[in-house]
Design brief:
263 residues; single chain; globular; alpha/beta
Length: 263
């Protein structure tokens, strides 16, 4: 399948990056923090990461890369650190395929000290299954409730919703269950992969999948406390859609988007 590269024009870094071994002490949680979630349809480049960093409200925020959907791919991790060198952020990575000898801090200690957590694209079903086995699903909910910004493209977008249209299984696109942070369904790569739109429209109308949202590659949605606050995109071609069911017929609404500044 043709997809835009996870990060545009970023060179691979040859050196390996170890897991974070020591982190600062937990900071007190603000009273009634705002729950923040930002998702995109597939692309995740410097402009999008800058926008993510701005949502933290902090200078030089700590952003943790969570590459579970791509099996902790070293290539993706290297690209992340290469891109981070060009941005005013503190980059971290949390692998799941680890041993006790490699990591002496818990998943919870690592993730709950971040300002934002960025989940990659990849296999949604595998990522959620592993997170549940390790209890990371509950840690991510704690992070969200603490006000840590959660984010991701593709699988990293689907995972936060009730369900989504995913290529996590062989042969055909299927419905996968998400973490239920946000209501409804999510479909990334809405026009990049031609089979997605007709399948999604048909399934929503037949009530095989919940109504929800669909995103082209650079289109994104920003939620606060489960309420959609901003719709963004990097160009006028990529769009965000809201799908509803009225009178037994699916309705596809194009949502007005603000253009993100370039890199």
């Amino acid at each position: 399948m043709k997809r835009r590269s996870f990060l545009k024009q970023t060179a691979l870094v040859s050196a390996a990056y170890p897991l974070v071994q020591s982190l600062e002490s937990f900071v007190p949680v603000a009273k009634n923090p705002v729950k923040k979630l930002f998702v995109t349809g597939g692309a995740y480049d410097l402009a999008t990461i800058k926008f993510l960093a701005s949502l933290t409200g902090k200078q030089n925020p700590k952003i943790c890369f969570l590459p579970t959907p791509v099996g902790d791919s070293e290539a993706h991790i290297n690209r992340w650190f290469a891109a981070a060198k060009l941005l005013p952020i503190q980059p971290f990575v949390q692998k799941v395929f680890i041993t006790s000898g490699e990591q002496k801090t818990s998943f919870e200690e690592t993730l709950l000290q971040m300002d934002a957590i960025l989940v990659t694209g990849g296999n949604t079903l595998n990522a959620i299954t592993l997170w549940k086995a390790h209890g990371i699903d509950n840690i991510l909910r704690k992070a969200w409730e603490k006000g840590i910004v959660l984010s991701g493209p593709s699988a990293g977008a689907i995972c936060w919703f009730d369900e989504g249209l995913s290529d996590s299984r062989p042969i055909h696109l299927t419905k996968v269950e998400g973490l239920h942070f946000l209501k409804g369904s999510m479909c990334p790569h809405y026009h990049t992969e031609k089979e997605r739109r007709p399948i999604l429209l048909d399934w929503v109308e037949k009530e095989k999948i919940m109504p929800g949202y669909a995103l082209d590659e650079t289109a994104g949605l920003y939620f606060e406390n489960e309420t959609l606050k901003r719709v963004v995109a990097q160009n006028a071609t990529d769009k965000a859609y809201r799908l509803t069911l009225k009178g037994g017929k699916v309705q596809e609404e194009v949502m007005a988007a603000e253009l993100l500044p370039g890199e």
